Amino acid sequence: MKNYFYFSREQKIGVTVLLCLIVLLLAANWLLPRFFADGSEMADKNFAQQVADFKASLKDEEQKRINRYNHIEERKLFAFDPNTLDSVGFVSLGIRPKIAHNILRYREKGGSFRSASDFAKIYGISESQFSDLKPYITIVGAKNLSPKNFSPRNENVEAKDISPQKMLIVELNTADTTELKKIRGIGSVFAKRIVEYREKLGGYARKEQLKEVKGIKPEIYENVEKYFSVDTLNIKQIAVNKASVERMMKHPYLHFYVAKAIYDQRRKLGKLNSAADLENLKDLPPEKLEKVLPYLSFEQQ
Q1: Rounded percentage of the chain residues whose pLDDT exceeds 90
Q2: Alpha helices in the chain (DSSP H)
Q3: Is 158 helix (H, G, I), strand (E, B) or coil?
Q4: Which domains are seen in the chain, by residue range?
Q5: Residue 44: is its pLDDT beyond 80?
């Protein structure tokens, strides 16, 4: 029996260490969940408190804004004519100085208010603020004032005559950005893009190509197309019997595979005499050939 239950010194140390490890693991298994549960609960409480503090700060800022607007020293309601009141008067009514300045700029450019509803369209004046001011708006000689176009999103309150535009026709292939901007609906950005795309194409062959200009949606095109004309004599063509693949690839309608197909066909036939020599190319279907044809020259040079 002694032989079975006898342990050497090393074995006794090993058993002792093993028992200690088991005890530590059991203790950790019992203590760790309680420790982290408390930490997680504390973190949740801190986060909830931060959210509550943030919401409270938003309410405080909103209340401060309302108080600033309603403060008796900043806002005094009185009868006024928006066509004659000065900036000090507008500020006294509770209108922000920047908005007051823009109103005066609008008037300096020839703008005028024909009714109280016109004043409501000034950018920066809220519905509630206008509701407070409306009973005090008194416009003298409204019938003699010329109508103006107001935009609630026009922060500069610029005056624009809304009388029918004269039929101004602009030639797409020769007009510069200044001429293009004469067309209602074409601003500086669109004018620049139209000219840049014209340079890439080599000129416009059809008015419909304006739809390919970035930002010109169908509804915009429908409004402006009647003011444009196209002179195809001003188109810069590509000499297909001389141009390299790299030269042809610069055109928006000719990607690498199309340019390479035209180049290979030229080498195969010796020269290209007409569009008929390109009709059977796999990478140039009939609809694409028709689109690109105005930009190809088959002259022998």
Answers
A1: 31
A2: 9-70, 87-92, 97-108, 116-120, 127-133, 177-180, 188-201, 218-224, 245-249, 256-269, 286-292
A3: coil
A4: 72-163 (no CATH), 170-234 (1.10.150.310), 238-297 (1.10.150.320)
A5: no
